[in-house]
Every structure is written in structure tokens, then in C-alpha cells.
């Protein structure tokens, strides 16, 4: 019967077994010498079986932590939902602190909350700055999506600046399926600063409409005074602010760009959350109340049944029994 380990790196800790055995042997030798010093008639308690039990228990606990599994189980999944693509701005301007702790961290938290509220919807994550990268393709594996989102930062994209239209075009090219027209949503979260000359944002949004994708834009950041862009040295922890020459860079929400984009489509929706907290889950729930849902293909999920509890139980039983095996 093959055994599968879901957390195989824990097996490296099996070196604790010979280490514990060596400690037991060392302790036994020292104990025997100490008793011999008392002379004849001294009472000696053998801990050999206790040592064997302890080493065995350590091995079983390590195996349990490695999450052993067998008995392959097959389960058919049938979900119905929409395709929700999150297009997240990770440019340096998103490090501005007019939203605590930063625009980017607020956006990531809002997306996580929104995903928690979904059920049966496929989700995807596209990060963009001066270029765009698909960090999570359309999937119902929300754990993988969360992992990709938590790792999102300005360092995730090699090219600096902001190019919103290019990010939308890449999303249409790689993730949008015309066969699912009317059942796909793209949620753009950005401060609207488009710092690089490139394709026109309005033309990019019209391509979304042509593919049957609902466009939702969330504008974050202070729209009047703006904020400086905080930077932190990873080695020293020293904080500073981004400068252009000798002048500190200030960034603010460019809502005009986002309003122009959403106005270019019949179903475009713009939310100007500025510097305040926002509940993306609630926003999306209200928008989607009467939206169409598609039935996704049936998927068969294969998973081995975890048996770690058997190893933990055996470890506890062996420890309890071995403590009663001390022999005079």
C-alpha cells in the first residue's frame, strides 16, 4: 500500500530519533557510573524500554507532522458561478500611506474579503505596473489565489511606472473567453495614475465590452492633497520617501481617468473609495445580485485520506506504556 505525504519536508526531522537515542545511551552510561560509585547494594533502574518507547514516539510524531495519507478518494465537483478577474495595481504609488497602512495593503485585504464571500466562482489575479503579469489563472483553488495575492508587491513586476491599458489588453488576451460573454467580471483596483505613454485606456475597456466582460473600477487614494510614497531599506529598516531629483514625489487619486474608462462601457461601474475603508465583498455582492451564472465543467478531485491521527495516537499510547516498563 503506497503512502503519500502531504508535508514531506517534515521527514527531515527524523534525525531527532538517533539524536534522542544517543542522549538516552549517554544518560544510561552516566547513571550506571554514578550508581557504581555508591558500591554494592545500590538500586539500579533500567530505562532501556523507556528509551525505546521515547525514540519510537518521536519517530511517530514526526511522521504524523508529515501528514501521511493513503486510501485514494475521488470526489466529483460541480460548481456554478462567474469568472472574477482582479486587476491589481502594484506600482510604487500604491505604497502611499493616505490609507493605513498603505493603498496596496488595503486593496489586498479588500480582495481577500471579497474572495471569502465567493462560492463556486473562478478567480484570477493579474498584477500590473509598467507591465502586467498573470499571477493566478482562473481557478476555484482559492488557497492558491490567496497565496499569490499575499506575495503581491511592487517587486512583483520588473518594470516600474503604471500602464493600465496594457494590463487590460493582456487580461483580454490571456484570460477572457468570448464563449463566457456576460458571465465574466474584471475588477480594477488602482489609484488611476497612468505614468507611461501607451495604448488608450478607453480603447482597452471597449475591448472588454466587446468580449462581454463587466468592468468595475475601484479608485483608492486621496484625491486632493495626495500622499508621499514611503520606502523602507530592507537591511537597515530606515524609512524614507521617494524623490524625483531633490523633490519628494506626491501621489493622489486620478479619478478622472477611471471615470472616463467606466463611462466608455454600458455596464461600467466606478467606485471612488478615496482614502476611506471599503468593503469590496459588499460592493460586488450588490452588483451581482441579478447577474447570470454559468455552470462550470465537472471536475474530479483525487485526494488521499489523511491518517496522521493514527500515528499521534500510537505515540501517546507508547509513551504511556513505556513509563510503566521500568525494570529494577
3D architecture notes:
The chain is an alpha/beta fold and 328 residues long. The chain has 2 domains: 4-75 and 303-322, no CATH class; 80-292, 3-Layer(aba) Sandwich (Rossmann fold), CATH 3.40.50.410. It has 9 helices and 17 strands. The strands form 6 sheets. A 6-stranded mixed beta sheet has the order 6-5-4-7-8-15, sandwiched between helices. A 3-stranded antiparallel beta sheet has the order 1-2-17. The chain starts with a strand and ends in a 6-residue tail after the last helix.
Summarize the structure.
This protein is α/β, with parallel strands linked by helices and 328 residues long. The protein has helices spanning 16-36, 48-65, 103-116, 142-150, 164-174, 201-210, 255-263, 280-287, 308-322, and strands at 4-5, 68-77, 80-81, 83-89, 122-128, 132-139, 184-190, 213-220, 227-228, 230-232, 239-241, 243-244, 247-248, 250-251, 269-274, 294-295, 299-306. The chain folds into two domains: 4-75 and 303-322, no CATH class; 80-292, von Willebrand factor, type A domain (Rossmann fold), CATH 3.40.50.410.
What attributes does this structure have?
single chain; 328 residues; alpha/beta; Rossmann fold; 2 domains; three-stranded antiparallel beta sheet; 9 helices; 17 strands; elongated
Amino acid at each position: 500500500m503506497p503512502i503519500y505525504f502531504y508535508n514531506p519536508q517534515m521527514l527531515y526531522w527524523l534525525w531527532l530519533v538517533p539524536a534522542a537515542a544517543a542522549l538516552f545511551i549517554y544518560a544510561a552510561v552516566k547513571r550506571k557510573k554514578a550508581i557504581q560509585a555508591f558500591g554494592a547494594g545500590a538500586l539500579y533502574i533500567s530505562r532501556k524500554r523507556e528509551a525505546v518507547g521515547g525514540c519510537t514516539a518521536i519517530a511517530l510524531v514526526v511522521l504524523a507532522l508529515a501528514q501521511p495519507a493513503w486510501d485514494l478518494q475521488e470526489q466529483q465537483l460541480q460548481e456554478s458561478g462567474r469568472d472574477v478577474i482582479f486587476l491589481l495595481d502594484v506600482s510604487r504609488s500604491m505604497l502611499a500611506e493616505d490609507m493605513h497602512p498603505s493603498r496596496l495593503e488595503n486593496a489586498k485585504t479588500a480582495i481577500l474579503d471579497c474572495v471569502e464571500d465567493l462560492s463556486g466562482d473562478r478567480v484570477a489575479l493579474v498584477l500590473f505596473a509598467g507591465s502586467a503579469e498573470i499571477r493566478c489563472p482562473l481557478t476555484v483553488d482559492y488557497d492558491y489565489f490567496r497565496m499569490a495575492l499575499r506575495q503581491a508587491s511592487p517587486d512583483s513586476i520588473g518594470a516600474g511606472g503604471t500602464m493600465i491599458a496594457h494590463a487590460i489588453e493582456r487580461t483580454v488576451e490571456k484570460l477572457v473567453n468570448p464563449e463566457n460573454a456576460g458571465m465574466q467580471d474584471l475588477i480594477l483596483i488602482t489609484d488611476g495614475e497612468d505614468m507611461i505613454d501607451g495604448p488608450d485606456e478607453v480603447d482597452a475597456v471597449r475591448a472588454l465590452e466587446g468580449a462581454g466582460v463587466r468592468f468595475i473600477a475601484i479608485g483608492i487614494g486621496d484625491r486632493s492633497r495626495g500622499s508621499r510614497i514611503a520606502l523602507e531599506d530592507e537591511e537597515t529598516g530606515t524609512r524614507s520617501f521617494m524623490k524625483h531629483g531633490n523633490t519628494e514625489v506626491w501621489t493622489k487619486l486620478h479619478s478622472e481617468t477611471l471615470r472616463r474608462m467606466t463611462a466608455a462601457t454600458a455596464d461600467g461601474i466606478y467606485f471612488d473609495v478615496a482614502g476611506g475603508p471599503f468593503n469590496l465583498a459588499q460592493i460586488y455582492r450588490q452588483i451581482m445580485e441579478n447577474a447570470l451564472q454559468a455552470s462550470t465543467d465537472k471536475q474530479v478531485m483525487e485526494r488521499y485520506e489523511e491518517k496522521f491521527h493514527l500515528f499521534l495516537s500510537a505515540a501517546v499510547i507508547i509513551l504511556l506504556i513505556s513509563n510503566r516498563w521500568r525494570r529494577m
